[in-house]
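Record now logged underneath.
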Amino acid sequence: MVRFGLFGTGHWAMETHGAGLDAHPGTELAGVWGRDRAKAEVLADRYGVPAYDDVDTLIDACDAVAVALPPDVQADIAARAASAGRHLLLDKPLALTVADADRVVAAAGAAGVASVVFFTQRFHANVTGFLAATAAAGGWQHARATFFASIYQPGNPYGASTWRREHGALWDIGPHALSIILPVLGRVTRVAAMDGPSGIVHLLLTHDGGATSSASLTLDAPVEAVTRDFTFYGENGIETVPAGEGAAADAFRVAIDQLLEEIASGTRDHRCDVRFGREVVGILAAAEQSRTESRTITIPT
C-alpha cells in the first residue's frame, strides 16, 4: 500500500485526486495540505485523514505526493518531495518557468523517484491507442488543434482560478494540446505565437523532420463555440483524434495504476514523466516569449 500526501484543496483536488486515491485499492491517503487551512480541514474530514499545517511534515508522512495546486506552487512542493525520496503524481503544467521545471526534473533524477504528470487525454485507452497507431504509421506533415473552452460561465469550478486568469489558455489547455501532438510529430524546434480576441492564443510549431502543427486555444469562448478538435494530415490521409472515453476520474485512476507500476518495477521511463512535463513547459515558455517579442523562437536542442 502506497501512502499519498495530497496537496491542494480545490475542486480538482477533491473530486479527482482525493476521490481517486481514496478509492484505489493500492493507495492510502496519509493526509492533506492546503494554503487555506479551513479548506484543508474540510477535505481531510471528507476522507477521514489529518490536515497538515506544514508541507514537509506531510512529505515525511507519505511515500508519494499527489499535487493539485497552481503550477508555481506545485513545482516547489514537487522538488522538495522528490529530494526527500517521494514519488510524484503531478498535474499539468509541471511549472510556469523552465528553471522551475528543471529543478523538479533534477530532483527526481537525483533521487531516482517515479513520476507521472497527469495529462488527462494521455490516460484514456482509446486516445493512447490512437496516438500509438498514428505515430507508427508515420508520414505526417501537419497537425491542427482547436481547443475552445468556456470556463468563466456561472457555476464552473475553474472560473475563479487566479493562475488561469493570469496565464490563460496557453498554460492551462496548451499542455493538453501538446500532449497529443508531440507523440506523433516529435520534438518542437521552433515556436511562433500570437493573440486573438476572447483570450485566444494561436501557436505555429515546427517539429524535428520538418512537420508543422498549429493550435488555437482559449478559455473564454462563446458557449456556442466550445469545441475540441485535433486532426493529423499526411501521406496516409487525414486522421482525427477521438475524444477520451470515460470521465477525468477514470483517467486519473489509470495514472495511479501506472505510477504504482513504475514504483513496483523500478523503471523510470513513463511517457508522461517529469521530463516530458519539462519539454512541454519549454514549448510554452518559448510561445510566451514569442508573444512578447513578436518573433519566432528557436528551442535549443
In short: Residues 70 and 98 are 15 Å apart (CA to CA). The chain has a mean pLDDT of 97.
